[in-house]
Design brief:
By secondary structure, the protein is α/β, with parallel strands linked by helices. Helices cover 37% and strands 20% of the residues.
Length: 505
């Protein structure tokens, strides 16, 4: 194995950012941050506790109530959002290096994340300038219009897969709409999140508008969810954590947007463009090391092309380059953390009892240390198998045959999850009808995971609560206040007068 690349000027200690200043935890608590290639500690991070969350929320609340941010004209905020985008683009190489080092994602895939993060800020800068609110008129009688107002302090809890880009998905609309924020990034990957502080400050975001508290989910995350002055929680992560957040947010009736786990089907009919379907089905589960919520990790293939598909899929999977994340030739890097590696490796062993192993099945040769798992393919997987039903979140795929369209639909919907689905067929009528009957928040027909920022992003069933993306993000991060005005004579029942009986109620 080539010498492991380490980016220059890596911090050895990562702090919180509260009210415009970098600070340690009040009680001095820290946690170790690991490099997934060697599993060695390369830094410590401040471990946020309840009192640190309290300080961050107090700063965010002060900035919301008395600061200029919520009262700025949309164009003024948009200029700052575009400056943020410029800064992100200018740091693309540095961001990619840090993201790859921190997450184990291949460098060629990490490079695109910075540009996607910048685009999120540009998109919402455009959207808030173009935003208009409803007005309803009854000529000569009344007019009703809507005030759209920022809600307050938004608590943003983000995951460790593509962390910088996924943080931007929440930060951009929350800030664009005039809210202030407290960001709690995933504890496995705090490195790139620490860059936001300087980016925002230099772009002109006032102190207290953006606050960052690192820490464990059960400490910092829990305190943020329960804080009575945080009316909004946007969370991306695992389903059982989402259920805990749902319970803990109930007492204060918080607004919730949660994008949770997935076990998305990729359905390949016999009439599909098999070459295109293979390309998508391989990339869809093995890109980002398989650590992606929308991974098509259950591949359902119609019987006439099943054997050919399995053979070609496994042959391609065996040639996928696994190696150091910083090597441009690498297609699958190291999983994010040894805890996660153990989980994925345990599913590989389970799979050996539940399916026919066609490729992978363990650690690749020549990679004796680090969190590496070879792209693993199981065929003939039954729908009650754990590797069919449970989210693995790694480079592991289950392939299952089907005969009829009805059977395919039953298999596709046969999990508790409902985030995404991919459907490959040349039959246009079948494609649209099958998509409509699929229990998934997002469906891709004869295409891969392309994203239009105007469309809703989210899942159904155990895959989420609510949607973000485009105007749906604007809706989530704002209150809509209806104002009613009577234009003609006011007709009100005259309670407490002699005329009351004569008045129509």
């Amino acid at each position: 194995m080539a010498e492991h690349y380490i980016p220059e000027n890596l911090p050895t200690h990562i702090q919180h950012f509260i009210n415009g200043e970098f600070v340690d935890s009040i009680n001095g608590a820290t946690f170790d941050v690991l490099d997934p290639v060697t599993n060695q500690n390369y830094a410590t991070a401040a471990a946020g506790q309840k009192e640190d969350i309290d300080a961050a929320v107090a700063a965010a609340r002060e900035a919301f109530v008395n600061g200029p941010w919520p009262k700025m004209k949309p164009r003024e905020r948009a200029r700052i959002l575009n400056k943020i985008a410029d800064a992100v683009e200018a740091q693309e190489e540095r961001l990619a290096e840090m993201e790859t080092f921190d997450t184990g994602l291949p460098i060629t895939q990490a490079k695109g994340q910075a540009l996607r993060a910048a685009e999120n800020f540009r998109f919402f800068a455009d959207l808030i300038v173009a935003q208009f609110d409803d007005a309803m008129k009854v000529p000569g009688s009344q007019i009703n219009y809507v005030n759209r107002k920022p809600i307050g302090v938004a608590g943003l809890i983000t995951p460790w897969n593509t962390p910088f880009m996924l943080e931007s998905w929440k930060l951009a609309p929350a800030l664009a709409t005039g809210n202030t924020v407290v960001l709690k990034p995933a504890e496995f990957t705090p490195l790139s999140a620490s860059l936001w502080a300087d980016i925002f400050t230099e772009a002109g975001v006032p102190a207290g508008v953006f606050n960052l508290v690192n820490g464990l989910g059960e400490e910092a995350g829990d305190a943020l969810v329960k804080h009575p002055q945080v009316p909004l929680i946007s969370f991306t992560g695992e389903t059982t954590t989402g259920q805990t957040i749902f319970r803990n947010a109930a007492e204060n009736l918080k607004g919730l947007s949660m994008e949770l786990g997935g076990k998305s089907p990729c359905v390949v009919f016999a009439d599909a463009d098999l070459d295109a379907a293979l390309d998508s089905a391989l990339f869809g589960v093995f890109s980002l090391n398989g650590e992606r919520c929308t991974a098509g990790s259950r591949i359902l293939v119609q019987r006439p092309v099943y054997d050919e598909f399995c053979e070609r899929y496994a042959a391609r999977a065996k040639t996928i380059v696994v190696g150091d994340p910083h090597d441009p030739k690498t297609q699958v890097g190291a999983l994010v953390h040894p805890e996660h590696y153990k989980k994925v490796a345990s599913y590989v062993e389970i799979g050996k009892t539940e399916g026919r192993l066609l490729a992978g099945g363990g650690r690749p040769e020549g990679l004796e240390e680090g969190n590496y798992i070879a792209p693993t393919v199981f065929a003939d997987v039954k729908p009650d198998a754990r590797i069919f039903q449970e989210e693995i979140f790694g480079p592991v795929v289950a392939i299952t045959p089907f005969d009829t369209e009805a059977e395919a639909l039953e298999l596709a919907n046969n999990t508790k999850y409902g985030l995404a689905a991919y459907i490959w067929t040349q039959d246009l009528t079948r494609a649209h009808n099958f998509a409509q009957n699929t229990e998934a928040g997002m469906v891709w027909l004869n295409s891969h995971n392309v994203r239009d920022l105007r469309t809703p992003f989210g899942g159904v069933k155990a895959s989420g609560l609510g949607h973000e993306g485009g105007y749906r993000s604007i809706d989530f991060y704002t209150d809509q206040q209806a104002v009613h005005i009577t234009l003609g004579k006011v007709h009100t029942p005259k309670f407490g007068t002699d005329d009351a009986a004569k008045t129509d109620a």
